[in-house]
TrEMBL record:
NAD(+) binds at G11, A12, G13, V14, M15, G16, D34, E94, K99, S121, N145, K276. GO terms for biological process: butyrate metabolic process. PANTHER family: 3-HYDROXYACYL-COA DEHYDROGENASE FAMILY PROTEIN, 3-HYDROXYBUTYRYL-COA DEHYDROGENASE. One of its GO terms (molecular function) is oxidoreductase activity, acting on the CH-OH group of donors, NAD or NADP as acceptor. Residues 188-284 form the 3-hydroxyacyl-CoA dehydrogenase C-terminal domain. This is 3-hydroxybutyryl-CoA dehydrogenase. Belongs to the 3-hydroxyacyl-CoA dehydrogenase family. PROSITE patterns: 3HCDH (PS00067). InterPro entries: 3-OHacyl-CoA_DH (IPR022694), 3-OHacyl-CoA_DH_CS (IPR006180), 3-OHacyl-CoA_DH_NAD-bd (IPR006176), 3HC_DH_C (IPR006108), 6-PGluconate_DH-like_C_sf (IPR008927), 6PGD_dom2 (IPR013328), NAD(P)-bd_dom_sf (IPR036291). The keyword Transmembrane helix does not apply. It comes from Paenibacillus riograndensis. Pathway: Lipid metabolism; butanoate metabolism.
Length: 293
């Protein structure tokens, strides 16, 4: 069984800091890299805050103290320490040009046999593999939010992904308490191919004046037993991320059913991005004020 002792994580946003917390609290050494020092400082604060909840929910954590969790994470703005990292998980923005730049940079620092986990909801794994020296080492890993508390991970087999890589990643995910589900490389995979149009259609319902956001969500919570309504889910993910994802689907399939609702575009233009900005379909300003107090 293959387990990696040190894992490189690229991107210290919500997903990257969640992953760093999840792995470091299970005893892994993590190198968390971001181009912005400010993002790394925010990640430290977020990891401190979130560890309280993770500790409460997961009684069997090997690492019990936050200081020990943080000591397992190296926060850096450079790739200097990546030469000895056997496994890298990349979580940057859903933008092909930005991802391409990262993978080309990584090749200068990482060993040839490094495995690359592409944590994406829409970008083609085959496309990433094609720019690597060893394309069989690229595999899609779509983690769910919040990472430490969600077991399911959608893993994606690109055109070149080898059976060895799949086996190694399945073993690794099982070792950290996750349940991998293997799917083939296709825009949006399964989760986002289904979730994004559903969220977009709910936004259309609001846009067309069919129902208010709270009522749309209430229907899904009470009628379909969803723990969280689609619009609250959109706010959690970030409306900019939702728009990026739906645009990738629209361009990939060339199908009008993926056309983003004008209300979604307008909200993103207005900076109403959901929980991270304080306002989206719902208001989080009191939650943000409380967390900064």
């Amino acid at each position: 069984m293959h387990t990696f002792e040190t894992i490189g994580i690229i991107g210290a946003g919500v997903m990257g800091s969640d992953l760093a917390l999840d792995l470091a609290s299970q005893g892994y050494r993590v190198i968390l890299k971001d181009i912005h020092e400010e993002a790394l400082e925010k990640a430290k604060v977020k990891i401190r805050e979130d560890f309280k909840l993770v500790k409460l929910m997961k009684k069997e954590l090997p690492v019990k103290e936050i200081e020990q969790v943080l000591s397992n994470i190296m926060f850096t703005t450079t790739y200097q320490s990546f030469h000895a990292v056997p496994f890298v998980i990349e979580n940057i923005t859903e933008n092909w040009e930005a991802k391409q730049k990262v993978y080309l940079e990584l090749q200068e620092y990482c060993q040839e046999d490094t495995i690359y986990g592409v944590n994406t909801s829409c970008i083609s794994i085959t496309k990433v593999g094609a720019i690597l020296p060893r394309p069989e080492h690229a595999i899609g890993m779509h983690f769910m939010n919040p990472v430490p508390l969600k077991q399911m991970v959608e893993i994606i087999k690109g055109y070149y992904t080898s059976e060895d890589t799949i086996r190694m990643i399945k073993d690794f995910l099982k070792a950290i308490g996750k349940k991998p589900v293997l799917v083939n490389d296709s825009p949006g995979f399964v989760t986002n191919r289904v979730l994004m149009p559903m969220i977009n259609e709910c936004i259309w319902a609001v846009h067309d004046g069919v129902a208010a956001p709270q009522d749309v969500d209430k229907i899904f919570r009470l009628g379909f037993s969803h723990k969280m309504g689609p619009l609250a889910t959109a706010d959690l993910i970030g409306l900019d991320t939702i728009l990026n994802s739906i645009l990738v689907l629209y361009e990939s399939y060339n199908d009008p059913k993926y056309r983003p609702c004008p209300l979604l575009v307008k909200m993103v233009d207005a900076g109403l991005l959901g929980k991270k900005s304080g306002k989206g379909f719902f208001d989080y300003t009191s939650v943000l004020a409380h967390s900064h107090a």
